[in-house]
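SAMPLE LOG
Freezer: B-3
Tube label: C17
Construct: single chain, 497 aa
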Amino acid sequence: MRYRIAVASAVAVLGLGVLGTVSGPDWDPVPFAETIEVATADTTIGESAGTDPVGTYEVATSIVEVELAGTTIEARISEPVGAEGPRPGLVFVHGAGTGRYEIAFVEQAEALASAGIVTMVPNKRLDTYTTRERSYVTMANDYLRSVELLRRLPGVDPDRVGVYGESEGAWIVPVMAADNPSVAFTVLVAAPVVPPRQQAAFAVDSYLRNTGVPVEVLTAIPRIVGMEFPGGGFEYVDFDSQPFQQRMRQPLLVVYGTGDAAMPTIQGAEQLIADLAVAGNDDVTVRYYAGADHGIKIDHVLVPEFSRDLAAWIQALPASADAAPAVAGAQPYQRFRAAPVERPRWFADGDMLLAAVVAGWGALLLVPVIAAARRLRGHRERSLASGVRAPLVVMAAGSSLAFVSLAAYLLTVAWLAQNYERNDVFVQGGWLVIRVLAIAAAVAAVVLVSRILDGRRRGVPAAARDAAGAWYLAAAFGGSTSILLLLAYFGVFPALL
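STRUCTURE (predicted):
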């Protein structure tokens, strides 16, 4: 009996592991073997003669209102005091999340204004921007209202107003600039370039590898990032900025920090150079700043050389548009290629996964409801045979704890990854705990089924002694099985493949 249960348990555990593996999709990112030739470590852009360095002027700020379709937003204008006009201008386009001028681009706007450039940081419009729904084309049209306002301000040269997009904003700026001569130049900082779904998979992979997670955890990337999310929406995750980039005719400054693990720093620059070439535009300048993060900061401080170079490049246009060297700074490194993400099969679509989670937990939560109803009716006798109670409890508790632990583990790992921290004891030990809990639940399921079948062969009383017991058994076993299948899908069980 024990030997049979041991063999059956091993088969069940490995079977769940194989099932999770073949359910797909797998995750096998392609190594990025290309590099980009950096001419020099000196990021200085062109000749600085005739340009005002950062810190030349005092800065005056004012708040203006920008009329958008259906609403009004505020924007902060930063101007150089005493600078002779007309001066170049720059509109900042926010990255992901909320964006207010009180906290976004404060250092950049101040530094550029002190060099003689009029800057504008509008508040991000949030009534049409949610996690589920957003349109980069609509956002581009909104930001163009800010461009037009800045072009009309006294002291601003309307023919020298450009846009600066960072992170998510780098998907918006190409839409603004394509076939649009009112945008004089463009700056893309930490540009994802590839569609959001591809960039998210690339970033998650990079972050998770930096935390040292087991390789099985990486298989969750396409299964989460690649799926259609429950309830629909999220169409923007497949937005492709390439057609717009191929119609950009303005001078472009591309900026990355070599410490930014979220972006394809080499692939992005190379694709932008190739895309602008389609439009017959070779006015692309690329700069890499050593150790700088996503916002071109080190220890939360904006890299001074970045401010210096950005100010000089803007002021020296059009001469700086093709000034040598085209690519300079620290040598970047990109381990894998950002590429299309394989979609999960129909049974692992977002709605199906959500249904499995709801069904599993709903069934398990039905057990205490049934127990409470029986007690209210005065029933105190046990509804399950003694031989099945223990394995059923272990199966339900083990699968539930494993699922909750997996969710907590992934959230904690995400926090570690975003903060560039490692905790090998938690990362490796936590994964081991999740596996032990899940395997214990699977073994308990085998013991439960074996005892029920063995009891039937020997003609002993049924596992469920009454209708309530049958509901207990069906709900706990069914709910636990659903959760075990979810755990298998996300790679918790080992597989010999």
